[in-house]
Specification:
7-stranded mixed beta sheet; homodimer; alpha/beta; globular; 14 helices
Amino acid sequence: MYLEPVLIDGEWRQSESPAGQFQAVDPATKAESKELYPVSGNDEVERACRAAGEAVAALRVVAPESIARFLEDYAAKIEDRSEALVDVAARETGLPASPRLRQVELPRTVNQLRQGAAAARDRSWCHATIDTKVNIRSKYGPLGGAVVVFGPNNFPFAFNSIAGGDFVAAIAAGNPVIGKANTGHPGTSKMLAGLALDAAAAAGLPHAMIQLIYRTPPDVGLRLVSHTGVAATGFTGSKEAGLRLKEAADKAGKPIYLEMSSTNPVFLLPGALAERLPAIARELYDSCALGAGQFCTRPGITVVLEGAQAEAFLAEAAAHFDTGIPGTLLGPGAPPRIAEGIGALVAHGASIVAGGREIDGPRYSFSNTLLRASGDAFLSHPHALQTEAFGTVNLVIVARDADQMIAIAANLEGNLTGSIYSDTSGGDDELYARVEAVLRQSVGRLLNDKMPTGVAVTPAMNHGGPFPATGHPGFTAVGIPASLMRFAALHCYDNVRPHRLPPELADKNPTGRMWRLVDGEWSQQDAAG
Amino acid sequence: MYLEPVLIDGEWRQSESPAGQFQAVDPATKAESKELYPVSGNDEVERACRAAGEAVAALRVVAPESIARFLEDYAAKIEDRSEALVDVAARETGLPASPRLRQVELPRTVNQLRQGAAAARDRSWCHATIDTKVNIRSKYGPLGGAVVVFGPNNFPFAFNSIAGGDFVAAIAAGNPVIGKANTGHPGTSKMLAGLALDAAAAAGLPHAMIQLIYRTPPDVGLRLVSHTGVAATGFTGSKEAGLRLKEAADKAGKPIYLEMSSTNPVFLLPGALAERLPAIARELYDSCALGAGQFCTRPGITVVLEGAQAEAFLAEAAAHFDTGIPGTLLGPGAPPRIAEGIGALVAHGASIVAGGREIDGPRYSFSNTLLRASGDAFLSHPHALQTEAFGTVNLVIVARDADQMIAIAANLEGNLTGSIYSDTSGGDDELYARVEAVLRQSVGRLLNDKMPTGVAVTPAMNHGGPFPATGHPGFTAVGIPASLMRFAALHCYDNVRPHRLPPELADKNPTGRMWRLVDGEWSQQDAAG
């Protein structure tokens, strides 16, 4: 029996004493892959952590330029192999090869890698701060241990543990990565890791800069995030798994950045619906259906005011949900999890307006589902009615009046996003102000007249938000250079002699362009030390 | 029986159904205060959190200028009442009124308040980031809940829960504070809170901007840091208490910033000792004895290479420890805790070179204590030999050779600081490089030829470090504006209409001077939106 190899310390190796094995599943056919992948036990995790420790030491003499070249070369290699990557990712995830994987996600992924390269080369991300009078200088630097990245099932490229946003951020900040592939797309991850390994070797990075395992038993995962050789973890996935890992990492005093769940509420104010109800209903459906509804930023809750307008909106939206073709879900676990989520909503007062059932057939699918609940029901069971159903599912909450709409906003849990649609002539502005005052505190990104799916990779992006959307409200998982800050430690140099300072903190600006906070002002000039 | 009042929702009130009472103790006479202070139960904590929630809402329309004026006015009020404050603080802590409290700590405290005011007014701290092409904008803003501050016993002003660094950072970032006074100096805290209350009212801040309780039963403290109305906690104190609070806050998904323990290792390289052994021995003693050794940054471990030089250094240092007059410790718990710490060191191979015993007498005191241990002993029991003894106590580790010195460095736990002394002609540079490579990763602030006590309040300062020195390696408790980032959430605005943006994110620069990251470059100009 041949098991696919793991990537440890710069080499593809047969897993030693694997704790089990698994296969990928093609969601479009429910067929299992012929490849078998190993479940890594504790010895393997120990070996990876030890090797990462050596990489940490070796990285001290690696220039930012080498890291930048690695990221760029890796991006080019991904483009060179894009057809093969798209093929395997489509087979493992059921996501459409085109446009989703080929024209959208793969270009975004290489763009992230290149932005990471630019950040590493530019060095401004490290917030070099120089106080010349007291000769105290500080900057952010690598954490001094491996970063473990757990990638989610829904973005085989852009959030892949070995190519996605967390990976780029950790590497660009100068840390080695131990990738824990999502078990939904091990073949995609393996192919990416192969390209990364070649690029890392060409750039002269340490052997263990990039390591890959596919799965661990739960207890080994907990040991991994709390291992002395691991400095931080990036996790994107379910709340259940995230909270287990968080508990272990917290106990060990290790930062863990989690992106766990979000219902991404959308508030539709009456003037907006009066102006453009059909367009908004269409936008909502399109956003809900993107990627078969399996986006972290998919709107899960819509809030409207009761009345004829609400009924008209529900009818219009229901028509889209009814007639839209349900997408293929990521794996066998998806339909029952959606059914479970919908069951929780219905059990607490929601009723189904469209869809609501698993679709039998050759592929994993679930009908597009629209639900409704009264504001009273929501306020009676605010927690249960924020249950996430990870598919094309939306719960419309019909508020009795503006006050109840505000109360609903006040009972929202932490979310990645919150959207408010308002009219264009200012008629909704008073209500907008009231909703925004409450909503602002519970979301990472606030949108106007726009659905939350489609996360631009741009410096001002915040793909984060208060718990339980993430584990810390001050960090973003998307947006470079801000996302690097998660994987960096603040290093201060007090009275350190000039020749011993890192170049970023020397009087001379090492690039001539790097932004540094010199004596309280941002500057690209040399410091007068 | 009269209990001193607590400050809740803008009023000094008798504690309702207090869970107990306590008195302050004058460490110089062991006399208890005539004042009785209440232990606050759960109802009081609930009331404070509810009031803080109202303050959060009210703060939405409070301009940064009001917060700045409050901080400045508060600083002026502290200066006006400095004699009374110094009197009560000296009586409650045993710290010398002069120079320590009057000439050093109080000026530092008002300086911090004024730096906080400048940061609030300047607004550059919030890292406004504007991407004009995609119209996505973000900045750091208040957390949307109260910040709880637990102040330590050793800085009655500069780290006071109601006047110190965490307080300034939380307020300047726009959050209300619930101060949990250190029970060692409740009278000082009460007097400060009175001044703060007056200044807050004059500045038009919400009633519950500043609240003060003195003590809670342990379970109520755990509920406080995990309360829905609390957004984050700043804690400075013992590792034992810090870890308990951390567990509760982590479970609730609330950031908690801890400053818990640090042995602040000092490496003395042979060239430095050859050049200036007596001066270094003097510096070490002075740094250890500052504040009776009760500084977070007091050097607790010194590492030297074995040989005649090490013996000469130990003899020279021992003379200082023997002849120096032991300071007055902060309270009745201090001597037994120091004895316990020394006991743990001795039990694991350290031997006492000077001091080592509690001093009987009218005040709380412990003899200045110097210990030594071999590098072998340290490497056999690295954890036990890093036990903190919070007083004028230093453990000199005598390493067999350079390799063992590196091994010792590699076994250090996370520390606030690490110092390396080397010769001035470059003879130590090779060894310096080896030590630094290892030490850098485990300390927040790396020093050359300088003892770690004396934490400058300057932007580049890092008073932080890896766990267990603190709870997160990316944040500092001292240094403005960086310390504000602990108490801020990242708020993104995506496609939000111009008139609804916070002023900091409008195209027009609201102050004409604020630094913003506009289209990837730091700028004080208006954005071309």
